[in-house]
Protein 1
Amino acid sequence: MIVEILSGLLVVCGLFLFVSGTLGLLRLPDFYCRMHATGKCDTLGALLALTGLAVYNGFSLVSLKIIFIVIFIFLANPTATHAIGRAALINRVLPWTKDSSPASSNVTPEEEAK
Amino acid sequence: MIDFFLVSSLILGLLVFLCLYRGILGPGFLNRIVAINVIGTKIVVILTLMGFIVQRIDMFVDTSLAYALLNFIGTLTAAKYLERKGAI
């Protein structure tokens, strides 16, 4: 009984993070802002939801595989987000500012291409 | 508990369709890559939930693991392809 309550609580927390990440992906104004929303919310949401499922399943080989998926997502998802952000920075995608002026970047294009 | 998993996977499916809006209409190539990455992460969770719903989790967890690997490799390949000047 207490295992079901714990796993349900973890899955609900994961669903809340997924919903907030999707709202950020739909509503935020810029590519960098959207990546800021999804890169964190999706990683932590998948971590919490899959941990809840592993808790519900109990101690077995399947739970070990689910924990392995959690560790892999925890390592891989920020890496993928960093790679996309680096590609956008090399291609000089300008960040959004409030008064729609060009952002005062302190990184020159020559050294950001490194 | 099965009903709770069913409702959770239905909510996640709705969120996948909301992300698909950004994946189809999103301005530019980078928004689409971010949206597809988000959809892939949601699909991994949906697959694991499906394993508990149909009670074949020992089969579905391998599919979920392979999907997580393919999602990461696909996103990283697209990002490395765009990592040169003038690609966009």
Protein 2
Amino acid sequence: MSSSTTDLTMPQMGVSVAEGTVVEWRKQVGDWVEADEVIASISTDKIDTDVEAPATGRLAEIMVAEGETVAVGAVLARIATDAPAEAEANGSSSGGGTSEADVALEAPGEAGELQGDTGRPGQAPLSRVVARGRAGSARFSPVVARMAAEHDLDLAQIEGTGRNGRVRKQDVLAHLERSAAPEPPMHIESPYRPDPPAPAQAPVSADGPAGASLSRMRRTIGRAMVESLHTAATCTTIAEADMTRVAAARKALGTSFLPLVARATVETLRAFPALNATLEGETYTRYDDRVHLGIAVSLGDTEPASPAGTGEQGLIVPVIRDAQELSVEGLATRIRDLAERARAGDLSPDEVRGGTFTITNPGGYGSILATPVINQPQVAILDTEAVVKRPVVITDALGEDAIAIRQMTYLCLSWDHRALDGALAARFLRALGERLEGWPLP
Amino acid sequence: MPAMTYLQAISDAMREEMRADERVFVMGEDIAVFGGAFKVTDGFLDEFGPARVMDTPLAESGIVGCAIGAACEGLRPVAEMQFADFVSCGFDQLVNVAGKMFYRQGLSVNITVRLPSGGGFSGGPFHSQNPEAWFMHSPGLKVVAPSTPEDAKGLLIRAIRDPNPVVFLEHKHLYRRVRGEVPAGRYETEFGARIARPGSDLVVIAHGAMVHTALEATEDSEASIEVLDLRSLVPLDEAAILDSVRRCSKVVVVDEANQTCAAGAQVAALIAQHGWEDLDGPVVRVGSPDVPIPFSPPLEQAVLPQPDDIREAVRELLDY
């Protein structure tokens, strides 16, 4: 039987996505699939999405088990395109050869039966057989096998340092140690959220609270934040700004402060291009007139009073490309659109990449100072805090000092001392402040 | 604590037990007037008299048989085989009579048979053997093999007091080469293993002189190498062995004896059966090939395990 098959591969989701994880198989080996029918869910470090069948046929083989991460382009599954449709499945053995696909096809379409051990090679869990083959060696020493079973590890994911790449006990121990590394405190990635309770240690007594492993989103954020702090020489500079005129303008426009601050930031960045840049290793890239502005969007419970507001949902930073081309109104529309789609999980990978500067906006929680973590590989992040009425000294038109009630805020800029120095950060904040304070009245 | 050689510690053990317990006496070839071929019992005749320090004919079967009889009458004889190799002449008494007496007749055979054993000094095929495995294979006998002066004294005192026949392997090559602090007075060392040096990456299991060879071979290793000194072969400290395996997961077992059915074979079998799930590599054995020990110094060196042999085995297993 000529086996004509079509490969289903890990799709390229955005230009810089290198790998993806299979979250769920919606179809099992032996199932009939139509072209463009969803057959699996996959996930990159930012985005979850579905994968459609590239052709009509029968799912002959699954190469990547749920939970496994593979490179873009890796074959996830094979679809036998010349397989007979439903009813004729069992009467198709015209040829004498039994390829793996044939064996799989002869099995009834029920996934449950496929899992059963019939003692016939190729019929039992194919994906597992393939996965082991890819690991280079399917033979593990007794202690490694036992530890893998005890800790529910996929040994194919562990790089072996023994002879011929053999996974050694110390490799498993190192892997476990890495996985057990303490998670970073949550306020790092979410500066405007109330601190959650301290991470639960291993329960000392049986009646203590039961621990649970972090969500994928939290682990991803945690990794990115810790990596940023390990990479950048992060400093935070704070300046005060009088937002009274901005407040009046925003009321007239019917928006939040954010689009106005974003607009002012974009304009200020064009005067300070050194901050509109990325630093990757030794490579420093300035984007000059083009500002791809990241806006931190909280995916969490929007009700601050809710006990569920533990930061569990995380946050995402969609990017407004060429933000310099958008007016305040245009920015407001884009921000609203991105935030809504971010919360709905509808962003494409390219919409969360390629930023050159980021604004994080605590919203209305009332905090006045924070030290944000730089969104790598950018060199700076602006944190805008609550706008509060405060008595301040102003100088009137006659040059006389007076105490007035003004709407004030702190602009907090975290910047990478590897890329720039503090004076530049201070000058940027001063320029931004002046722009905000001089905002044209409606 | 006074520092003593391994040999002095053995003398000290017998002297102290003889002073404290008049049931204890020593017998063997040339041990009285001459003080023993290695002078272990030098001065004993003067101190304890001919009734408790007895020269015997060159007849190991007679020595062991006589000791068994004395033990059945309630004494605690310590019999010296001039060289461990000669014990084969007393084999029947030791294996068939001493080892089975309690089983057959309920009689305690409280004898200690000292076997000056081991090679490394060009003693040749009749004066260099390590016959511990013969007796490990004979039910009813206990077999111990100290590596340090402190253990030599403590294990010998324990052996003299043990109601069972005990084969005491004292390594000739250690007699005057190993020196260490030995507690004064009478103390017993349990028949169990000790960790000569703790480690976590690999464990070398040895006994007798090979403990020192193993320590020397691994002292400069960058890895963390444990050395487990068995001290007692029957009973074998299975818990200590399996505990080391659990922590280290890689094992080199060293015997000075020729490898086939040596003590280390028993250790390796134990690990294969009960330590399997802790292993991260094959159990590697180092020992002498199955040949008699040559006279020729370079040949003898080629036959007996050297530090380099252990070093090589350790390196290979670490790389595995």
Protein 3
Amino acid sequence: MILKIIIGLIIGFVFGYALQRTGITKYPRVMGMLLLKDFKVLKFMLTAVILSMIGFHFLGELSVIKINPKPLDWGKLVGGLLFGAGMGLLGYCPGTMMARIGEGKKEALLAAFGMVAGLFIFILYNDFFKSTFLASPIDGNLFAALGVNQWIVIVPAVILFSGLIYLVNKNFSDNKKIF
Amino acid sequence: MEIDNSKEWHWFKGGLVVSLLSIGTYVVFQAIEHRSYPFGVTSGFAYISAQFGSMFGELTETTIVKNYLSKAYLEFFILVGLVVGGFTASKISGTREPESIPATWKKYHGDNIYKRFFVVLIGGILLGVGAGIAAGCTTGNILQGWAHLSLGSIVAGASFFLTAVIAAHILFYKVWRTK
């Protein structure tokens, strides 16, 4: 039990520290990305995705870990659209919300209250969601669905994301005043 | 016009730290808990919601409440760690600027904090319901899910961006129109 508390605290601390130091918790940064004018948040996210993607699948191939992909169902689309609307209204997501509370941004406390209330609604009407959006999930990841070796998907994905980082990095400054 | 972001980490450094955290966490979880599951932020909030749920007779026995209460204990402490991490990072870098609502919001939508609080509350609830239905937030579905090439997360992450970009363009129509 105590081990879980310590591990949880360490994960949160490192994550919160990195998010704050990189500037991902800043309201104008996130809104700047959503207005397609400041891409630092996107570059940070895609860098993390590329490096983790290579690491996860490499360790998976060595059987150090077992990759357990999230299933596809209509909830991913419906929930995703609702979540995105919330993220656009707030200017931050659940992780950065908590780091913002640490930064002294008071409104983030109200957002956290809303998040808990929203998940309470999800719990309360869980039977309804299970019988509709979450019914008949499709298991697996992209390469399993395509029936190919994992690296045949990973290599193009890494090239695509790296290319995207290169393009936005070349065309948009991180230090331009937008607002 | 340029803004001073010299105290921020480079986006690559932030991405590298987060990817090492994601991979490290996954290996640790596999070793100590025998679970093949990445860390996320939504589960921590769901743990709090489930605690509320367990106060109501008929909800206590539902699978969803039991699941969250038994599996998301560690994740609850990630939330605590995030607040401490955000606080420490902002103190160390000297970027701690407490405020009720974002200055950028005030500039375009006025000083009325209740107007912003209303938007924040609605945004928070949408985040909660959406993350519940989509089985994860930006952390679980993009930073982890995209790295795992999960079919579900690819759809969820793309949906996040779609409505978030639309909401941001509506809120900051004037900024969007200026070059």
